[in-house]
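Archive entry: two folds, one per protein. Generate the first.
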Amino acid sequence: MSINCPKCQSRSIIKNGHRRGKQNYQCKSCGRQFIESYSEVGYSRKVKEDCLTMYLNGNGFRAIERITKVNHNTVIRWVKQIGNQLADSKEDYEKPEVVQLDELQNL
């Protein structure tokens, strides 16, 4: 086999059953169990961008949920993450005197 252990890079591995429909391997050197490739989980970047765009265009979180079938709590978490990234940026900008927040609490 040409698979290396992700922990110790050893080539001394054996097959060790199946897990969730994928071949499971075990390293004989360090004992680590792993699969050959991991699939990405979660929503695609496009879905996330679409939800954030809808929010910026004035849609509420539950309206976004009804349209995209993405849980409103997930959309809220994405908005908070982007807000934190923007708060950490070092760019100088003018702070507005008046702002409007829709359905957000305890940011």
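Generate the second and append.
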Amino acid sequence: MTVYRLIHSGDLPAVRIGRSFRVATTDLNTFLEANAAPMS
């Protein structure tokens, strides 16, 4: 559900194909790097 919310809010770019969404690997990696919690 979280991924769907991110896609619909525009925070995670995706393409809709039929009834499913596809996220490019580069877009996912960029999102994860920008939003990763710092490791202690």
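Annotation attached to the second fold: The longest strand covers residues 15-17. Strands lie at 15-17, 20-22.
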